[in-house]
Design goal:
Elements lengths: L1 H8 L1 H51 L4 H7 L5 E3 L4 H7 L2 E3 L6 E6 L2 E6 L3 E3 L5 E3 L13 E3 L4 H43 L14 H47 L4 H27 L8 E4 H12 L6 E4 L4 E4 L1 H17 L6 E5 L3 E7 L28 H11 L3 E7 L2 E7 L5
Parallel strand pairs: 9-11
Antiparallel strand pairs: 1-7, 2-3, 3-4, 4-7, 5-6, 8-10, 11-12, 12-14, 13-14
């Protein structure tokens, strides 16, 4: 359904529909005009035949010969024929016969023959009397050869139709060719929105669409270069951080067994763990990591988050059940760790309450209201909620990305001096 809606909203689709309608309307208009002209053409031909018949009758009354008569009817594109009428009727390939029509039309040897029928009058005694304008011997029937080609009008409208259709087709192709790069650009931008930087929107041409495509391609090239530089920087930073952590672990192992040694070892283990998770989160937010999802109990995820924080469980009050979710265990535990950590830092009450429900997880703590809208704190390096001495402002940003990557949603509300963070596991479609 979305595909159909997007297709209907497409500029190329709308232009195609528009040109199809225009093409149909123009062809219909030309067809109607052709039929009208064809009808008028037949009417004009009848008038032409009658005028020529009148000239012939007047000329014969004046005893003019056929050569003189042909000169008089030349402007009507007709000439007299000496063909025999009976033979013509027998040999004609096409014969239009209507006993009530005043004109008989024959086609023979690619010529068009016209025979005006003599009129008949009825006297008072209702006897048929054939009209005879001559007192002497009656001349033969009048038969014309029509010098005009009936196909000319058909050829004319056929040329008009073909020319119009070719012009419309060329104009549609011209627009389609100009707008096609826009569709390609849209598809490449869609790929880019999913984190794919291996795209190419370079276009040939100097029009505005080509310029936009080329500028966007230049921007993607710079982003790709910056991304490569970021990866190199992170790789160097992680290498530099791993070295002192490894040395610290080695030194702590040489100490005598004591409470101090245990604290140091846990601290270095946590740093090493967080460093590894930082790498995973970086890959996740950049779209380069695939989640390894399995079904886990929410309470187990909470235990992992608490272990990472190295806090006393007495600071939390957990109301749990056997709810299970399909998540990446380590990544999702970090998201829960961030939410619990924030709740503990800004809690003004004794304990942070955590409620595990069938379709959601709620983390509740008492505290001062936020200074800005919640969406503001979902952006990276937002320090109003995580001050400079407490964090870099990445906690909620990372948490929201992790939750969304699992197909869940993070909600926030503040009521009665309590902050309430809610992870919705089941989202109504």
């Amino acid at each position: 359904m979305n595909w159909l809606t997007n297709k209907k909203s497409s500029i190329l689709f709308q232009i195609t529909i528009f040109f199809s309608i225009i093409f149909f309307i123009i062809n219909l208009i030309i067809l109607v005009q052709f039929l009208l002209d064809n009808h008028n053409y037949k009417t004009l031909n009848i008038q032409r035949y009658f005028n020529a018949t009148r000239i012939v009758l007047e000329s014969r009354f004046e005893q003019a010969d056929d050569q003189e008569i042909n000169k008089k009817i030349k402007h009507l594109f007709l000439k007299l024929s000496d063909v025999d009428l009976r033979a013509l009727k027998e040999l004609a390939n096409e014969y239009e016969d209507d006993k009530f029509a005043p004109i008989e039309i024959f086609e023979y040897n690619d010529k068009k023959y016209i025979h005006p029928r003599p009129p008949k009058f009825r006297d008072r005694t209702k006897k048929n009397i054939e009209f005879r304008p001559f007192k002497k011997k009656r001349p033969g029937p009048i038969i014309f050869i029509d010098l005009l080609d009936d196909n000319e009008i058909r050829y004319f409208w056929l040329i008009v139709l073909l020319s119009t259709d070719i012009l419309l087709g060329w104009f549609y192709y011209f627009l389609y060719k100009k707008l096609k790069p826009l569709v390609r650009l849209k598809n490449e931008i869609t790929k880019f929105s999913y984190g794919n930087l291996d795209i190419n929107t370079k276009a040939i041409g100097n029009d505005e669409i080509s310029q936009v495509s080329n500028e966007f391609n230049n921007a993607i090239t710079k982003i790709r270069e910056l991304n490569d530089s970021r990866k190199l920087f992170l790789r160097n930073i992680l290498h530099e951080l791993k070295t002192p952590i490894t040395k610290g672990k080695l030194v702590s192992d040489t100490l005598e067994e004591s409470r101090r040694k245990e604290i140091l070892q846990k601290a270095f283990l946590r740093l090493e763990y967080l460093l590894g998770e930082f790498v995973k989160l970086e890959e996740l937010t950049s779209g380069k990591m695939n989640l390894v999802k399995k079904e886990y109990r929410v309470i187990d995820l909470l235990d992992q988050a608490i272990d990472i924080l190295l806090i006393d469980r007495d600071k939390l009050e957990i109301f749990s059940n056997v709810t299970k979710v399909n998540v990446d265990f380590e990544i999702f535990s970090i998201a829960l760790k961030n939410l619990i950590d924030n709740a503990l830092r800004y809690n003004t009450n004794d304990k942070v309450e955590i409620f595990v429900k069938e379709d959601s997880l709620l983390i509740k703590n008492k505290g001062e209201p936020l200074k800005k809208d919640f969406e503001h704190y979902l952006t990276p390096f937002s320090r109003e909620y995580e001050s400079i001495d407490k964090g870099l402002g990445l906690g909620l940003y990372i948490t929201n990305n992790v939750i969304q990557s699992h197909g869940y949603k993070l909600y926030y509300s503040y009521s009665g001096c309590y902050h309430l963070f809610k992870i919705q596991f089941k989202i109504d479609s």
